[in-house]
Amino acid sequence: MTAMSVQPLRRRPFALDGNAALCSSGDWCDGKPLSTQLLNAYTLLIPEGERFVIRTCAPYLREAAPGLREELRRLFFQEGGHSREHERVLKAMRADGQSLDLFRKPLEWMFYRVIEPCSPGKLRLATAAAIEHHNAVIATHFLNRALLRGIRIGELRRLFLWHFAEEIEHKETAFKLLQSVSRNWLLRALGLALSFGTFMLALALGTILLAVKTGSAFSAGFWSEFMTHCRGCGLLATIVRESARYLSPGFAPSPQESRTLLDAALAELESLGVVRPPFREIPSRRTLPAAFRDRMAPSLERVRRLRPRNSYFGACIGGYDGAWVQSQGMRKLNFCTYSYLGLVGHPCIDEAAKAAIDRYGTGTHGVRLLGGNLELHEALESRIAACFEREAAITFSSGYVTNVSAIAALVGKGDHVLSDKRNHASIVDGCRLSEADVTRFRHNDMADLERRLSRLPDESRKLILVDAVYSMDGDAAPLQALTALRDRYPNTLLMVDEAHSLGVLGCRGRGIEEHFGCSGQIDVLMGTLSKTIPAQGGYIAGSRELIAFLRFNARGFVFSAALPPPIAAAALAALDLIESEGPARRARLMSSVDYFVGRLRDASFDVGNTASAIVPVLLGSESLAFDMARRCNALGLYTMPVAYPAVPKGEERLRLNVTYAHSREDLDTAVETLRMARDYL
Fold first, then answer.
1. How far is CA 380 from CA 376, 386, 486, 529, in A?
2. Rounded CA separation 216/29 (Å)
3. Percent of the residues in the chain that have a pLDDT greater than 70, as a whole number
4. Which alpha helices (DSSP H) does 215-310 contain, by range?
5. Which of 531, 592, 612, 662 is catalytic?
6. Burial class (CB in 10 A: 0-12, 13-18, 19+), 152
7. Terminal alpha carbon distance of the chain
8. Residue 387 buriedness (CB in 10 A; 0-12 / 13-18 / 19+)
9. Which of 313, 342, 426, 340 lies closest to 615, judged by CA?
10. How many domains does the chain have?
11. Model confidence over 333-352: pLDDT tens digits?
């Protein structure tokens, strides 16, 4: 039985508690100044170092034996987690003035922009294997002497316990991959030398610089600990001894060597909580009735069929970094976001939300009509009305609730709704709830709409419903033709959902009216606060009479809690930014859209008739859409498949959303990744 079959790599979804202390300028490792600064220096190197290991090993994934391939996937998951969580500690160190950016950034540039590209692939792999060996030596030293129990900051103790336990597991996987590629002893020796000349040297320099910066280097305890590490059982002596063993003939590392130590570390980690709070699944006390299980069975069977091979679908996001996300232990280029103008994380918006919490707290005391109405809510609604040149506006708790509530309030039994066949599900559900007679016309087909309008009595109430930009296709509604039809038939209102057009259409990003040059022509202008505006909620803008009616008749407003203060403040600040920065951000966005669509068409991808930042890649098969998305995610492109019922069967696709944050290099990377995924399949 091999060591890896005894102690397999596992996916441990670890997460630090962001509310706890993650940094201290003092000696937090049991009063040991050298150990404290050594672990701090280790954190400086880990985020980019782990990404180097993933980048280096990834090209060999396809050719690896099935067992080794699965080990590598799990190693990538673990290394990505190490990078993500140490990055969080690094941010805390930066806030405390300990990130050594003037030392770290030039070093990273030299290692990963100069040395790495100039090194042959096999040499990079040998270096990665040697680095993993050195990591395991450091981890074993700290765990074997129970040094981590002396860490006074609880979250840092959990972090290093988790990281070091998994580093012990990694040494075999990296070495096995190297051996499967090349058994050349000289290559192994060169990799070890590069590990000393890069990782170990940087770790030593970082420790010394941090010790000088914090004053630890001028204490007797620092040098006393240094002398201890130089002796036979000290860390320095152990590194030298284990490096010599690494070069010996027949060397074959295994977690079995440290099995007792590894089991103890993992047991301690479990007691502290791998993820806080530790999740414990509680079985249901009552089984659902058979009739309900029968109704659920087809959908659940589809999920069971697709989920095992598509773990990326619905996977958690660990953090955002501009146009990139951390997911499944990887840094992925994000094309799933609705942040079209790149306003998520904008400091002005974040500060506005924090200030609202300081003033009002995190929530309201009830619904708007019964004690939950804040000055902030009315300021937001006034700002929305002014933005769209309307008399008034009203906000709801979500875009979905906005459509459902407004439609159900405006029409009822005996009234007529004419709805585009590709309208959003919230519009479809609003029509059902209204109990009005619903007629669906062909997508963007004004002749079909007019035929259906002409059959309805003049005296009947009629509501035309469309999306400004269709969320799955990216094409725009023909607003001028719609308003002309509305005006031609008496007692007709036009309601337009602007969820995906704000910030995208119009020279100032004011949406579809500005795009077509017909301001004020939409009777019921609906929009969301959760896409271009990085908050939550929805709104209706219109006449004072319309808004007053909805305020007392739209059930989603009357009976739903008011928007939380930080959300309302964030939305208000975002509207101010759209006013000041929107035109420039929108111009860059649309330039990127034009470039991206052109590149995709040149690569023979079918992107339909998109006129917005939503770019579909039409595939026509559910299995192909999921396979493409799976391959793209494995290659670092964060995109999702869209299948029935979100789109009709036979129109399955990937949907990619371009944003202000995407650079031309990002767009080129996405096109090349899509091409590689297609060629692979």
1. 6, 10, 30, 11
2. 13
3. 93
4. 220-230, 235-246, 259-272, 290-306
5. 531
6. middle
7. 35
8. buried
9. 340
10. 3
11. 999 999 999 999 999 999 99
Residue numbers of the domain that contains 547: 364-563
Give the Cβ contact number of residue 357 at 10 Å: 14
- Is 19 part of a structural domain of the chain? no
Q: How far is residue 163's CA from residue 89's CA, in Å, rounded to a whole number? A: 13
Instruction: Please tell me the predicted confidence (pLDDT) of residue 369.
Output: 93
Q: Is 365 a catalytic residue?
A: no
| 542 contacts: CB under 8 Å, gap ≥ 6 | 390, 391, 392, 393, 523, 524, 525
Tell me the mean pLDDT in the region 221-242. Answer: 88
Give the number of other Cβ atoms within 10 Å of residue 69's Cβ: 14
- Is 32 one of the annotated active-site residues of the chain? no
Instruction: Kindly list the distances between the CA atom of residue 505 and the CA atoms of 341, 527, 673, in Å, as whole numbers in the listed order.
Output: 12, 13, 28
Catalytic residue among 471, 501, 530, 592: 471
Q: Look at residues 629, 635, 600 and name the one whose alpha carbon lies nearest to residue 614.
A: 600
Q: What is the mean pLDDT of residues 126-139?
A: 92
Q: Are residues 520 and 629 in the same domain?
A: no
**In this structure, are 490 and 629 located in the same domain?**
no
Residues 587, 494 share a domain: no
From the list 433, 509, 409, the residue with the least C-alpha distance to 469 is: 509
Q: How far apart are CA 130 and CA 535, in angstroms?
A: 46
* pLDDT at residue 220, rounded to an integer: 87
What span, in angstroms and rounded, lies between the C-alpha atoms of 312 and 272? 28
C-alpha dihedral, 30 to 35 to 41 to 46, nearest 10°: -80
500 belongs to the catalytic site: yes
Residue 281 lies in a domain: no
Q: How many CB atoms lie within 10 A of CB 93?
A: 21
Chain-centre distance of CA 578, in angstroms?
A: 23
Q: 260: burial class by Cβ within 10 Å (0-12, 13-18, 19+)? A: exposed
- Structure token pair of residue 167: 């580093």
- Among 346, 500, 515, 662, the active-site one is 500
DSSP state of 606: -
* Single-letter code of the amino acid located at 200: M
Q: Across residues 261-274, what is the average pLDDT? A: 70
